[in-house]
Design a protein that fits this description.
Pfam families: YmdB. It comes from Mycobacterium sherrisii. GO terms for molecular function: 2',3'-cyclic-nucleotide 3'-phosphodiesterase activity. This protein has one domain (2-273): Purple Acid Phosphatase, chain A, domain 2 (4-Layer Sandwich). The chain has six helices and 13 strands. It has helices at 13-29, 57-66, 82-89, 150-155, 172-181, 229-235; strands at residues 2-7, 34-38, 70-72, 109-114, 117-125, 162-168, 188-192, 202-204, 208-211, 217-219, 253-255, 257-263, 266-272. The strands form three sheets. The protein has a six-stranded mixed beta sheet with strand order 4-5-6-7-9-8. The protein has a five-stranded mixed beta sheet with strand order 3-2-1-12-13, with helices on one face. The longest helix has 17 residues, at 13-29.
Length: 274
């Protein structure tokens, strides 16, 4: 029997500080064996929302030192300077989506043993999460290439023990359909990317936990953890590119997190942690 704590997208440096401060207590209070955190938005790397987040090696090391075991990512995993991105994604405990074109730095699958149990952590991403015409990951590619489908990628993964999937995407039905497709073979499919936590916590036949969106760890009072200014200008059809660099929201901190109880390769319980 093992307990897995999973935190959704960490948005900004203040949220990073919050997670690092809380992680030791969470591990103790919840009797956590494995802690996984999506940190693709933990740092600011540029002035624009869609290309200006990412993760620094310093931030990754802080998370790991605080008690996080595995860091996952998404479409922002390639934000920032190329050399810095390559350094972060070379870390053995930092994942980025697995179903990416060949030639990109990083890995999307990690096998590890904790508390005497084998786990495989898988990071997948839907095409719905990539909205830029020229996404930043294309800097490492020659010619236009895109993601492999999550299902096709899943079939090629060498898996052992209990499998925990971070499914990064916008589409509700795609996340839910994928979870049903892998029911009985994955212990959990945990949705990230939209930052807004969904209420239902599902336990599918075969022992697969599903939450469509775990939710962000970040400041409230804005739009997905970000000050509304840029989003409002975009929806009004205004030139948001002329605005000053985006700001993060400034409201009280919220934490999107779930705790899984896993027996063998099956999840037997899923609950929210606040």
């Amino acid at each position: 029997m093992a307990r897995v704590l999973f935190l959704g997208d960490v948005v900004g440096p203040a949220a990073l500080d919050y997670v690092c401060a809380r992680m030791p207590g969470l591990r103790s209070q919840c009797e956590v064996d494995l802690a996984v955190v999506n940190a693709e938005n933990a740092q600011r790397s540029g002035p624009r929302i869609r290309t200006g987040f990412g993760l620094s090696i310093e931030a990754a090391e802080r998370l790991l030192e605080s008690g996080v075991d595995v860091i996952t990512g998404g479409n922002h995993s390639w934000d920032g300077d190329m050399a810095d991105v390559e350094k972060v994604l070379a870390h053995p405990r930092v994942l980025r989506p697995f179903n990416m074109p060949d030639g990109l730095p990083g890995s999307g699958v990690l096998q590890l043993n904790v508390s005497g149990m084998d786990f495989t952590v898988v990071n997948l991403m839907s095409r719905t999460a990539v909205v830029e015409p020229e996404p930043l990951f294309s800097r490492w590619l020659t010619g236009r290439q895109h993601l492999t489908s999550p299902w096709q990628a899943w079939q090629s993964i060498d898996r052992s023990g209990a499998v925990v999937v971070d499914f990064h995407g916008l589409s509700i039905n795609e996340k839910q359909a994928f979870a049903h497709a892998v029911a009985g073979t994955a212990a959990a499919v945990l949705g990230t990317h939209t930052h807004e936590a969904t209420l239902p916590l599902h336990l599918l036949p075969g022992g697969t936990a599903l939450v469509t969106e775990v939710g962000m760890t970040g400041a409230t009072g804005g739009v997905i953890g970000i000050d509304p200014e840029h989003w409002v200008a975009e929806i009004r059809g205004e030139d948001y590119g002329a605005l000053p660099p985006y700001r993060l929201a400034s409201g009280p901190m919220t934490m999107g997190a779930v705790l899984l109880t896993i027996d063998g390769m099956r999840c037997t319980a899923i609950e929210r942690v606040h």
